[in-house]
Amino acid sequence: MQPLANKIRPESLKEFVGQGHLAGDNKPLRIAIENKHLFSFILWGPPGVGKTTLARIYANELDAEFFELSAVSAGKDDIKKIVKSDTGDKPKVLFLDEIHRFNKAQQDFLLPFAETGELTLIGATTENPSFEVISPLLSRCRVFTLNALSDEEMKQIIARADLKMDDEARDWLINMANGDARQAITMLENTEKLYKKITIENLKNTLQSKFLRYDKQGEEHYNTISAFIKSMRASQPDAALYYLARMIDSGEDPKFIARRMVVFASEDIGMAQPTALVVANGVFEAVEKIGLPECGINLAHGVVYLSTCKKDRGAYEAYMSAMEDVKAHGNLPVPLKIRNAPTKLMKELEYGKGYEKYTKEDLLPEKLKGRKYYGKTSISNSRE
Question: What is the CATH number of domain 219-308?
């Protein structure tokens, strides 16, 4: 029997809810569909926000043959079968869910088919593609970022299920699903099958019986990694090790944990212990080379080190402050003294004139002279 989420899946952009920045009027995906523009792209965003649905709509509107694979279970042979399949004059669109699960060799194998146009690739991922997709493949795909669905958008999608419930039950469901339409619809379907009536109490019972576990694409995933980071930030290695063990035991990707540690080393430790970034990178490399279960030891080593380091967010806060000025003021003119002067004309315009290597003169654009970013704020603590 077809799951409810598939039964109510939109078949056109007219029915599609959410992602207005991509699928709305005069937005890139809508324009591509309207102009029948065939190209490879990657959909990056949280679970249950419409990645698969958008891919299906795109292929259908372009009258292409749609092939769907999951990178968790698919391999080179599956791609070969699709390439060799006869679709007549129809182009082949390959939707590769969880593309971040394809290893480098598998992505290398896929690359020439995307290059030649034998396959139009649509990848879907919840992970940052710049970390998980090889550069040659990434350079041939446009990346579209999808957002979690708003409460109003969730209401519209839940209404499509056509199941009776009161406003309180609906609002509780929306809050629980946290922008994930697929989880909300699955909860509705399971509650209706188990209890015949959708109430808050019955929804909670369904949640406990089916969803009370660590879900790598769900809320508990984000809660646990948040607790992990905050424990290291508070210089509490015991708590950090507990959340690390919890993630590893639940099947979390160790590279995801290691990446967060690399970010943490610069964001929260920074100049208080610059070698923290070296250690974190070392841990990431060890995780890549060794893999589970042994790389858990490398992660634990790094977690204790990062937790017990002094903390200084000065460099991070300075960067954020500088970014605020960039957003507020745009590309302000660079002072003439420090401009590049590779041509005679530029030299005549006094580019680089008067430049001194070790000057104490303020080198910020004129409008920002005197602005201080680094050293303005700093948070430092250590475990006794």
Answer: 1.20.272.10
